[in-house]
Design brief:
This protein is an alpha+beta fold. The chain contains 14 helices and 14 strands.
Length: 345
């Protein structure tokens, strides 16, 4: 009973309000601030001492998508909450109550034919093109700026979580340096995206979309998604999946995730990496609503960090994963210590 109740509350809190990144930083100024970091560009720092387990930040995604699938859709297309598998994409009751189906971009997205793009992503395991498809629909059919008020979130007991505006905030995030011309897979994905859009547009609107969503736009977006998207693992609460998760937990083994959804956040994307992070990334509602809690006591003026990789892996594997996915090698205190120990063995 406790589990069900907490899940309903978490899903209800998925009602969101659009708060651009600049305003999110202003609202969070009592806890953190954005500063330049030598050799790292910029980072977020604590403006006061923070006790262990303190909630530091909570944010809803400005873009998210379930894992690519052609046949079985087991997560809500709106918030990534798990549910019963379906042959077609679906959204949960909480997202319906939040008015997702009424948003112009979502109606356009629902009319489009994303089958070929899904097939490309299923074959390659690449999820970023599906996020770009949503971004394309948002650019062509933007939602209203006061979504939180439209949803009547004032009736909730606590303020709804903020989410960034992908049409403006994506440009503030770091990007991978991809020399021209764009990689051939990106060209193929972009073509499939435009074909999918054409199925949902009419007449001259298709030509307008092709001009607005050209290959340069796609390449820029992909270069930013590659460095900033979070993996969101949810656990199915249905039938055999729940029994398997419980058995794994009781046996001390890893709990199998339903599937790694993908989500992009505005402020949360500004946290730098450490293999000994002071913040834990959590998804307590079993959906894409992200929370960051202090993993230990944090001093005022200390940089706030999260881990981009599995902190349980060895230093060699961590370095390999970071270099492959993000293009850098970690020089945090833990890596320096463990690297020195490995060199001495």
């Amino acid at each position: 009973m406790t589990l069900r109740g907490s899940g309903r509350l978490a899903r209800r809190l998925f009602h969101t309000r659009i708060v651009p990144l600049e305003q999110q930083l202003e609202h969070a100024a009592t806890v953190l601030q954005l500063l330049q970091v030598p050799g790292q560009g910029r980072g977020l720092f604590a403006t006061q001492a923070i006790s262990q387990n303190t909630l530091v930040h909570r944010e809803a995604p400005m873009l998210c998508t379930p894992p690519p699938s052609l046949h079985q859709h087991a997560a809500c297309a709106g918030c990534l909450a798990p549910g019963s598998p379906s042959p077609t994409p679906w959204i949960c009751q909480a997202c319906r109550e939040a008015g997702l189906q009424g948003e112009p971009w979502w109606r356009l997205h629902a009319r489009c034919d994303w089958g070929p793009l899904q097939a490309l992503c299923s074959g390659s395991g690449d999820k970023f093109p599906l996020l770009m498809a949503r971004l394309a629909c948002m650019r062509l059919r933007p939602c209203g700026p006061e979504r939180g008020e439209e949803l009547g979130v004032g009736a909730l007991r606590s303020p709804p979580p903020a989410r960034g505006d992908p049409l403006s905030d994506l440009q503030h995030l770091c990007h991978a340096r991809v020399p021209p011309p764009p990689p051939e897979p990106w060209r193929e994905q972009h073509a499939a995206l435009l074909r999918g859009l054409a199925a949902g547009l009419a007449g001259k609107a298709t030509a307008v979309a092709c001009r607005a969503l050209d290959l340069a736009w796609y390449s820029d977006g992909m270069s930013r998604l590659h460095l900033n998207v979070f993996r969101v693992d949810t656990i199915s609460m249905h039938g055999a999946s729940l029994l398997q998760a419980a058995a794994a937990s009781l046996g001390g083994g890893p709990v199998a995730a339903l599937g790694a959804g993908s989500a992009l956040y505005a402020l949360a994307s500004l946290f730098n990496h450490s293999c000994d992070p002071c913040l834990d990334v959590q998804f307590p509602g079993n959906n894409a609503l992200l929370t960051l809690r202090a993993a230990r006591d944090v001093d005022a003026g200390e940089q706030l960090t999260i881990s981009y990789v599995d902190v349980g892996a060895g230093v060699t594997q961590r370095q390999r994963s970071l270099h492959h996915a993000y293009g850098f090698r970690c020089r945090c205190a833990r890596c320096v210590e463990e690297g020195a120990g490995s060199a001495g063995d």
